[in-house]
Amino acid sequence: MKAAFIHETGPAEKIQFGELPVPVPQSGQVLVRTCAVSVNPIDTYIRNGANYWELPKPYILGADLAGIVEVTGPGAGRFKVGDRVWCSNQGLMGRQGTFAEFCAVEERFLYRTPDKVSDDAAAACALVGITAHLGLFQTARIQSGQTLFVNGGSGGVGSMVIQMAKAAGVRVVATAGSEEKVAACLALGAEMAINYKTEDVAAKVKLFQPEGVHVYWETTRDPDFDRIVPLLAERGKIILMAGREARPAFPVGPFYVKGCSLHGFVMFKATPDEQRQCAEDINQWLVSGKIVPRISHVLPLSQAAESHRLQEANTLRKEGSLSGKIVLHP
Predict the structure, then answer these.
(1) Confidence class of residue 319 from pLDDT cuts 50, 70 and 90?
(2) What is the DSSP string of 163-192?
(3) Which pLDDT band holds residue 322 (cuts at 50, 70, 90)?
(4) Strands (E), the chain
(5) 248 near 224, Cβ under 8 Å?
(6) 160 and 132 in contact (C-beta within 8 Å)?
(7) How far apart are CA 146 and CA 215, in angstroms?
(8) How far, rounded to the nearest angstrom, does the alpha carbon of residue 10 sit from its chain's CA centroid?
(9) Under 8 Å between Cβ of 162 and 135
(10) Apex CA 31: angle with CA 91 and CA 35, to 5°?
């Protein structure tokens, strides 16, 4: 089978595209013929040498997948051959990734793809959708009528946060780095979208929500808490999902006198049952049209290295050339 893989960590040039053996599904696994995968920032961190866990050799990249069940392994009974499925949380915790024509996946991480949902859409909202759901409903415990601020609303996770919060009856304020991305946030359901490069974010939020926002969702790697805390309402919550190496200053006084709280979470540490609860809602919202993944680029899997360069240019260097997810086709 064709696959995108590495033999050693390093820059995107380390990615090889070539032949690997088709995996044989083990106990509790299903062999999936891949139809679409998507790129996430964590894929690039692992490829570049982030030592979160030991990698298989060779290591197939990727966390997300949508495809068709080809073979069911011993003890796997939830799916049958021909079922359309999607998954995330692969390529993590020592598991092989998804950037291949076939993938052996534990069925506890697989979810049925609804008939009306495309493989591209399922793959594009997998990791980012589960991340947004966990952060909103398990971590922030967002409630109808509250106001949420998402810093970076046009990206993969941010766009999911806007749509899911809107589906839950939450008012959303978002930031973006261009007028095109501001328009995209409004189209996704944000009641206010602010161009952080040309507008005074704090002043605009104050006019929109004078008492402050109930939840502040930070999508970037380097949070500025001196800017964040004044935007919070009493007992406001900050949600962090990135910034493993970040060591920012923290305004302890203004934070604690408001009774605020700070919450970090990592998607891949959620249990399979917790992730399945997210997937069930995601499927319902995809079918109803309440969430629509933003797809910026669709490329062949043979361009996996280029997809990583494009992702890094936006995640690390803030080039602004992505307006959604990168999807790859084997």
Answers:
(1) confident
(2) HHHHHTT-EEEEEESSHHHHHHHHHHT-SE
(3) confident
(4) 2-6, 16-19, 29-38, 59-60, 65-72, 84-87, 102-106, 110-112, 147-151, 171-176, 192-195, 213-218, 232-240, 261-264, 295-300, 325-329
(5) yes
(6) yes
(7) 8
(8) 23
(9) no
(10) 75
Q: What average pLDDT does this structure show over 92-96?
A: 94
> Beta 232-240 vs 213-218: how paired, if at all?
parallel
Q: Which residues contact 311 (CB under 8 A, 6 or more apart)?
A: 39, 40, 41, 43, 44, 322, 326
The domain limits of the chain are 2-125+293-329, 128-267
Is residue 283 within 8 Å of residue 277, measured between CB atoms? no
pLDDT confidence of residue 324: 87
In the chain, % helix, strand, coil (3-state, to 5) comes to: 35, 25, 40
Count the residues in the chain: 330
Domain over 2-125+293-329 is classified CATH 3.40.50.300 = no
- β-pairing verdict for 325-329 and 29-38: antiparallel
Per CATH, the number for 128-267 is 3.40.50.720
Three-state SS string over 276-287 comes to HHHHHHHHHHHH
Query: Do 75 and 28 meet the contact criterion of CB atoms below 8 Å apart?
Result: yes
Structure tokens at 84: 């359309």
pLDDT for residue 317 is more than 90: no
98 contacts 60 by C-beta, under 8 angstroms: yes
Phi, psi of 97 (to 5 degrees): -90, -165
